[in-house]
Design goal:
Layout (H helix, E strand, L loop, with lengths): L5 E4 L10 E13 L2 E8 L12 E7 L5 E7 L13 E7 L5 H7 L6 E8 L12 E7 L4 H5 L1 H11 L2 E8 L8 H10 L4 E7 L16 E2 L16 E7 L1 H13 L7 E8 L2
Parallel strand pairs: 8-9, 8-12, 9-10, 10-11, 12-13
Antiparallel strand pairs: 1-13, 2-3, 2-7, 3-6, 4-5, 4-7
Amino acid sequence: MAPGATVRCTKNPNALAIVHFPLKLTARRMLAPTVAHLTFQRDDGQPLDFIPGQFLQVHFHYADGTATKRSYSLATIHDHALGPGEAVEIAVSYVSGGAATALFEGLDEGGLVDASGPYGRFCLMPADANQRYLLIGTGTGVTPYRAMLPQIEQLIAERGIEVVLLFGARTPVELLYGEEFRAFASKHPAHFRFVPCFSRELPAADSPHAHADVRHGYVQQFLGEFAPDAVKDIAYLCGNPNMVDACFEALKADGLPVQQIRREKYVSSK
């Protein structure tokens, strides 16, 4: 995925009236040299009821006063609606000269941003009866999969599902939330497989990222290895549009019906 704030491409965000609310920054940490994990609280005392896979929009103005907005998938790991004061987490890519980058880099702890949402339908569906999920992402496109982990754990317990997470990054330092996904895979070795795909640089032999499921190349190169199956699989694609398009065509060629391939493209925007 190209670095920078993202504009989310969705066919049909929630059709309800848009409700704006203030988010107060409570913590910031860098996940990678150009990606920040930001933690907020909703500052109006109201809860935030969202489904993992949904996103928020942050509203602000360019220097000339023109209104604009950016979309960010919710990264919060939760198994309930977020009550007042609970963490609202997003991952933000920084790009040189970006208006959204300037907004977030200049935001001190305690500072406020205007947000709305949640939106989107890139979610695990209650009616799904599949045996396996193929989760494929690049860059911050992996963020919704982090939020889905409690749901995945519940589905493992209830239905014994299997999950393969193919995550594309250029280098090991850009493997967002890699430690968390690896820990989840270790906790559920028979059900959750974490496959990092590094396009430029493999981890050193003594790195915690160096394990048997590491691949050198792009995620779309390794889809066939997991034998996508129309009978048992539902696939999710999130991130760089070129990756999403390539994987979509590959999955169709493997026989997956379009309704079993769920997509969300991230388009770089300043």
